[in-house]
Design goal:
This protein has about 500 residues and is of the alpha+beta class. Helices cover about 35% and strands about 25% of the residues.
Length: about 500
């Protein structure tokens, strides 16, 4: 089916900009930030301080096909006796963007890049985030390296952090790498072109899967959510397709979780404060209990990540097609993560979903401001300098970053809903197969495919429960407000 002729990117851009402004996000850089950008003409190179030369290693990046803001590289090295050394290189954004400069002020205000169906609103100017501070292929770049040794049982037996000069040998994409790793396709061209890269990635995948098994054994939640990815035909929105999890995404996720944990413990061990990423014990556990009961299962009255994960494993096996929708319901009930000040020696809540105490965000400094803060704290730890932020500043920054992250997510969802309403605007009266993703006093929600979209059931929702299959008829759309209304089909 051809997209509606009014399903254009400009209309969605306007919706996105208004949504950002309404939520206190800046869609444009200031004149001062643009002038500063013009003065930055080359990537940062080693200056004072110890910087290792690790350009000879087989570094690679794995990200979305169209991603250019590359934050991290990875490489694996087998050691005698069975352990494997995993190195994660993180773009040294702080080397180009100094605190309180105009670009830093913009990043501190928004705190995150905003990824909408219309366009990306980057936290840093694209000249930096997609070029001079990005770990692009065949580009020598400064990085902060998290160096970890994983033993044969999947435990971290040693770790260190240092600065290094690195070189990305292969820019790879999630989908093609995942298809190759699972045997569904030939090696991607860049893997085949770099001698030794195939064995390198196999080893990375092996260790990532080991780390994942250990995490889940400790109670980390195996959730799987589906995001709709826009497909454009020129400037016309042609489709919204599901962007599913895969083996390559898991590889990067597991390495980043490990690196973020090492970073948190590194700062704490050196007596420095940090912004931890916290997911509290869920306050809506009673609703998670109810959700489990509707599916014929039972969970303990006291919140338990391990028990919840065992429930999720059973549901994935029993209903693989509906697992992503169940995951979405659980994610909503778990609540959102937040950034909180951690002072050495003081207790702090950990991350319920990951089943870890020590966790922070440090691996995506081109896209998230908390990660830039982490870099500045790490550099102080490496040199013995005083922290660049006081405890009160970090506490305030944590609250602000939490708020802006929530605002950015709401903007992304709002524009995504407008895009879905746009695609469905000419299909009123059509019937779709759907699955119930939410059923509460606030309303009952159903997700359909082709296009991937979620709408509210305004008539005939009585008796519908989460994960139930249902046929619905489209009765109304509102593109500007992102509304999609269904009624239960007879």
């Amino acid at each position: 089916m051809n997209p509606p002729t009014d399903a254009n990117r400009d209309l969605l851009r306007g919706i996105a900009r208004r949504a950002m402004q309404a939520r206190g996000l800046l869609p444009e850089f200031s004149a001062e930030a643009l002038r500063q950008t013009q003065t930055i003409t080359q990537a940062a190179m080693p200056g004072t301080g110890e910087v290792r030369d690790q350009r000879e290693l087989l570094w690679c990046s794995i990200d979305n096909d169209d991603s250019r803001d590359l934050d991290q590289l990875s490489v694996a090295q087998p050691l005698s006796g069975g352990p494997v050394r995993i190195l994660v290189a993180i773009a040294d954004v702080d080397a180009l963007i100094k605190r309180d400069s105009p670009i830093d002020q913009h990043a501190r205000s928004n705190t995150t890049s905003v990824y909408t169906a219309a366009q990306i609103f980057p936290m840093l100017p694209e000249k930096l985030s997609t070029d001079l501070s990005s770990l692009g292929e065949n580009q020598e770049r400064l990085a902060i390296v998290v160096d970890m040794t994983v033993d044969t049982a999947g435990a971290l037996s040693d770790s260190s952090i240092y600065r290094a000069l690195v070189l990305n040998r292969a820019k790879l994409a999630y989908d093609s790498v995942a298809a190759w790793l699972t045997g569904a396709a030939a090696p991607p061209p860049r893997v085949a072109a770099v001698p030794g890269m195939d064995q390198q990635l196999r080893l990375q995948d092996q260790i990532a899967q080991l780390l994942r098994r250990v995490r889940h054994a400790h109670g980390a939640l195996g959730l799987e959510s589906i995001e709709a990815r826009p497909v454009f035909d020129g400037e016309l929105l042609a489709d919204l397709k599901p962007d599913r999890n895969n083996r390559a995404k898991e590889l990067i996720e597991d390495f980043m979780i490990a690196a973020n944990g090492v970073t948190a413990r590194y700062l704490s061990a050196r007596g420095l404060p940090s912004l931890r990423r916290v997911l509290r014990t869920p306050q809506k556990w009673d609703r998670i209990l109810t959700l489990a009961r509707t599916l014929g299962d039972a969970l303990p009255q006291t919140p338990s990540a391990q028990a919840l994960n065992e429930f999720l494993i059973k549901r994935r096996a029993a209903d693989p097609a509906g697992f992503s929708d169940l995951s979405l319901s659980v994610i909503k009930l778990l609540g959102r993560g937040e950034y909180m000040l951690e002072m050495p020696g003081q207790p702090i809540q950990g991350h319920f979903g990951l089943a870890v105490r020590d966790y922070m965000h440090s691996t995506a400094p081109n896209r998230r401001f908390p990660d830039v803060i982490a870099q500045r704290l790490l550099k102080c730890a490496l040199t013995g300098a005083q922290p660049p932020y006081s405890a009160d500043e970090l506490r305030a920054l944590g609250a602000h970053c939490t708020t802006q992250e929530d605002n950015a997510s709401k903007v992304e969802r709002q524009v995504g809903k407008s895009a879905a309403a746009m695609l469905l605007s000419s299909r009123s009266g059509q019937v779709f197969d759907g699955i119930v993703t939410g059923a509460a006093e606030k309303g009952t929600w159903v997700r359909i495919e082709a296009p991937t979209a979620e709408g509210r059931v305004v008539r005939g929702f009585e008796g519908l429960e989460v994960s139930a299959r249902v046929r619905v008829k489209l009765v109304h759309t509102d593109v500007q407000r992102g509304f999609i209304d269904f009624e239960r089909a007879k």
